[in-house]
Amino acid sequence: MAMAGATFTWVAPLLLLLEGPESPVRMTTAQVSWLSSIVGIGEVVATIPSGFLADKIGRRTMLLISGPFSLFSWMLIIYTDSFVVLFIARFLQGVVIAIIFTVTPTYIAEISQSNIRGTLISMTQVFWNLGIIWIYTTGPHLTFTIFIFACSSMCLIFIPAFSIMPESPYYWIMKENVSFNCSILSSQIRRNKASKSLSWLRGNQDITEEFAELKESVSKEMQQKASCMDLFATKTDRRAFLIVQVVCLVRYMNSMTTIMIYAKQLFNLSETSVSPNTITLMLGLVTLFASIIAVFVADAISRRTLMFSSTVGTALFNAISATYLFVDIKTKYEISKYMWIIVMASIGLCITGTIGLGSLMLTVQAEFFPSHTRAIAGGVTEMLAAFSAFINIKSYPFINDHFGIYWNYTLYTIITVTGAIIIFKILPETGGKSLHQI
């Protein structure tokens, strides 16, 4: 996830360089804008294929593939002077991010125990933010080539480190015809790959009971062949799909997606003397701190309470931001001395958005679908997430230029208020339950 965070963000601290005369690849402002957002197109294209391939060749295999893909994209960036090749590399990076976000929640949900599943999935947000912090602490201070080499170093760490991890036991049970006769379960555990994987993950503890429950769960879920239509097969499936997509839309059609990218524009309007790099780094550190807190509360506080509180909090801080910006731009009141309001609102957005929506989005995605559709559902959800983020990032400057920046935050407020109402009405509690019980 740190690799994905760095891959998504590396363009941001280089925007001025890429538009200037010293750019290693000469580009116009419009081309730089597309370079920032084309990663979303790569994500949209790759999400559903990533889900299908995760069921065909394995969750672990797909995640390992993302490493060489990412490394190849960085090498293209280092050794090219063509913006076309740079766009291709950025598109490939979108594919890498799609694989990671589609498969990682499924993999973690399937290898973890129910009492720590929320914590482990929440940690992905911590490492995502660490990747972003890495970009904003190195990007402004290194030359272009050294900076890209520094970014690619994460791939070289990830590939050997993740190679030691086993495949998901859920995947092996899905692929292998494991006998359901519990009387010979002990001998079967030693022979099949699923039991070896589960035994490795549990530190060679007695897994007989857990393995039997896992087999029973997967056997029932695998009675139907997985397809996209299975996401809507029953009322329960349709409800689960609706819940996850609502959470996804609220998460990505929100200021949480744009605040890191457009922090400079926002704070320039407020006439602050703090440099844009300092502001962005500050918000990144706040988000990292909030994601660490989220790890400790993910399984200690109910998912439903965290998600609802987070959505209400982001709605409140979006409303404060919209009000401040409207008064600042559309009225004659001099409010520059109250600039701390927009600063605190931005910090509040980072905190409330991360503890809940940010940290639990992947948890909800992983928990609400059965094993035979979990990877496919992850692909569909990630496609919606990528498309929503792309629309959000591209529409932000358009709305700013034609209607006023306060309209962005007004729309964010409407979306989050609507999301909070829907989440309150339909989101069930899943904390502490096994995937079979959910």
Write a brief caption for the model.
Keywords: Cell membrane, Membrane, Sugar transport, Transmembrane, Transmembrane helix, Transport. It is built from 19 helices and no strands.
How would you characterize the overall build of this protein?
The protein has 438 residues and is an all-alpha fold. It has 2 domains: 1-171 and 196-204, MFS general substrate transporter like domains (Growth Hormone, Chain: A); 228-437, Growth Hormone, Chain: A (Up-down Bundle), CATH 1.20.1250.20. 76% of the residues lie in helices and 0% in strands. It has helices at 2-9, 15-19, 29-57, 59-78, 83-111, 117-138, 144-163, 169-175, 185-191, 193-201, 208-221, 235-252, 255-258, 263-269, 276-297, 303-330, 340-367, 371-402, 405-426. Helix 3 (29-57) packs antiparallel against helix 18 (371-402), helix 4 (59-78) runs antiparallel to helix 5 (83-111) and helix 12 (235-252) packs antiparallel against helix 19. It starts with a helix and ends in a 12-residue tail after the last helix. Residues 177-187 have low confidence and may be disordered.
